[in-house]
Amino acid sequence: MIYNEEYETMPRQALEALQLKRLQKQIARVYATVPYYAGKMDEAGVTPADIKTLADIQKLPFTTKEDLRKNYPFGLFTVPMEEVVRIHASSGTTGQPTVVGYTKKDIKMWAELMARSLNAAGAHAKDTIHNAYGYGLFTGGLGAHYGAEELGATVVPISGGNSKRQIMLMKDFKSTVLLCTPSYALNLAETMVDMGVDPKDLALKVGVFGAEPWSENMREEIQAKLGIKAIDIYGLSEIIGPGVAVECIEEQKGLHIMEDHFLAEIVDPDTFAPLALGEKGELVFTTLTKEAFPVIRYRTKDFSRIITTPCSCGRSFYKMEKVTGRSDDMMIIRGVNVFPSQIEHVLMSIEGVEPHYLIIVDRKGNLDTLEVQVEVSEAIFSDEIKQLENLTKRIQTEIKDLLGVSCKATLVEPKTIQRSEGKAQRVIDKRKI
Amino acid sequence: MKVEQIAIFLENKSGRMAEITATLAQNGINIRAMSLADTADFGILRLIVNDTDKARKVLKDSGFTVGTTQVLVAEVSDKPGGLAHVLQIIKEGNLNIEYMYAFTQKSGGTGLIIFRFDELDRAIELLAKEHIRLLSGDEVYAI
Question: B41 to chain A nearest CA, in Å?
Fold first, then answer.
């Protein structure tokens, strides 16, 4: 299902011409209205007139979270506050919050992108959408909400938390679409088991999950446990929120980037040199149409690559590979780069291992240590010590084989690892504490 | 001849044993035999109780991982050489014992040995042939 056929299936040549036109207009406007961006461009010796092709974007300086923080709260807004109708902000757990703003037109555009995303996931006007993304300063809740309404669906604005009530309402309202983080989807599946609710008693058919990186194995787990299709959606508040890219239900392989509104690049995460299409690196986005808070070459710290293979769904938008990690999440353990999603991938490939795990990184003497705590479910429990020791050895061996890092796998009692009601806390790095 | 045993996963944290026994006590469950296997990181508590299903349920409800296994309970004479005799039979029969533990009855001059075999049926056959008495589940639960 394609919500906006004209744009979503636009031939590449026309699409790229549209992108260039929008990019030129955007850069000129930002240069004229935001002294900070103008200053950075002057410093780099580049003017809006230098943008003659899409590749010319590489002449422009990057924007990072640090730039956003320096301009806290409204320094990068291009319009006076009376035109700003909405503010969102990051949680700010890693420092000062980053604040973003939207004009009326931005909100409308965002709603359309979310409607497109939900439609791509197979949702339509007849659906009842259970929106368990958090409402508030976080973009997830309201972003998805407006999109669901734009689509014409019935929205249940439940927000996060109180899983039992969520399940009861999904059942009673016959909700067909679930929106939340992937880790919360698993939390809901587990709570259903505890409540004696069979997922088959619910009307759910699809879930649109985002806001944290998750593995293919986790997708399989969610699909099996909830009996639904699990669709990945990508977005970040600095760009707009959810709806920057989404998987189509036809392929569930790669997320179509809303290229009429965002220009994506992949750069080398260390040198920031542009990488060729198809190479893996850090995702960088430029907003082409956003009014209140445009960003130029924003470094997302998310790792992906661009897939140019035509998709069977008919969209002409290039896809980005499912994000497997963030440079923020990346742990350097004894010199080896390790992403939590890689450990998750190993765990999920071992039958019976539950997707509840905790990674603990520490330093003993001069040596980094990696411990992976896994809950003992009935499926993997044995009354024989040797069976459980074989399991921990297997986890250790497979992690060592995949990552080249030795670790210690520890079995812990069920439900002792904290459950997520939003973004899951998977890593405790004691080296930083 | 097969006797149900429950096994509970335990992290090495203080107070966990007390929580298990308190849960069983509150639910009127009596422990018939027990053994605790431990490693540096975790332990496995194995119990034979008077009501396996109920014990399993109340422990699961309290958040423990509980498994059920079938074991054999053999009677040996409570005198020197009693256990050696049984183990000799097992050895000659080429049976592998995964683990075992023992308890004695209040009266009657016999000891009871609990065996966990992989080849359960062959073990029953072998021990019966050698006239080692195996207790039924009901006998054990009612001790």
Answer: 7
Structural domain containing residue A405: 331-429
CA distance B11 to chain A (A): 6
Return the pLDDT at A422: 67
pLDDT score recorded for residue A423: 66
Nearest CB among A378, A389, A410 relative to B65 is that of A378
Name the β-bridge partners of A235: A242
For residue B56, the distance in angstroms to the closest alpha carbon of chain A comes to 12
Dihedral over Cα of A178, A182, A187, A189: its sign: positive
Which of A:349-388 have CB within 8 Å of B? 376-378, 381-385, 388
| Chain B nearest CA to A191, separation (Å) | 13
What pLDDT is stored for residue B106 in this prediction? Answer: 65
Domain range spanning residue B13? 2-69
* Bond into A35 cis (ω within 30): no
Cβ within 8 Å of A, B 102-131: 116
Mean pLDDT rounded to a whole number for chain A: 92
pLDDT, tens digit (0-9, with 9 covering 90-100), for A241-279: 999 999 999 999 999 999 999 999 999 988 999 999 999
Q: What is the CATH number of the domain that holds B94?
A: 3.30.70.260
Instruction: List the single residue in B with minimal CA-CA distance to A386.
Output: B98
What CATH number did the domain enclosing A66 receive?
Answer: 3.40.50.12780
**Of A52, A76, A48, the residue nearest A64 (C-alpha):** A76
Of A290, A323, A356, the position where a domain reaches its end is A323
In this complex, the residue of A381, A389, A410 whose CB is nearest that of residue B9 is A381
Kindly report, residue by residue over B42-92, the tens digit of the pLDDT. Answer: 999 999 999 999 999 999 999 899 999 999 999 988 888 989 999 999 999
**Smallest Cβ distance to B64: which of A385, A412, A413?**
A413
Residue spans of chain A under pLDDT 70: 91-95, 422-423, 432-433
Please state, rounded to an integer, the average pLDDT across all residues of chain B: 91
Q: How many CB pairs under 8 A join A and B?
A: 51
Q: Does residue B140 sit within a domain? A: no
User: Which CATH number fits the domain that encloses residue B14?
Assistant: 3.30.2130.10
- Average pLDDT rounded to a whole number, residues B104-118: 82
- Asked if the ipTM is above 0.90, the reply is no
Query: Is residue A186 a contact partner of residue A207, using CB atoms and an 8 Å limit?
Result: no
Which residues of B are less than 8 Å from A377 in CB distance? 65
> Do B67 and A413 lie within an 8 Å CB cutoff?
no
Who among A378, A412, A416 is closest to B67 (CB)? A378
pLDDT in the model for residue A324: 75
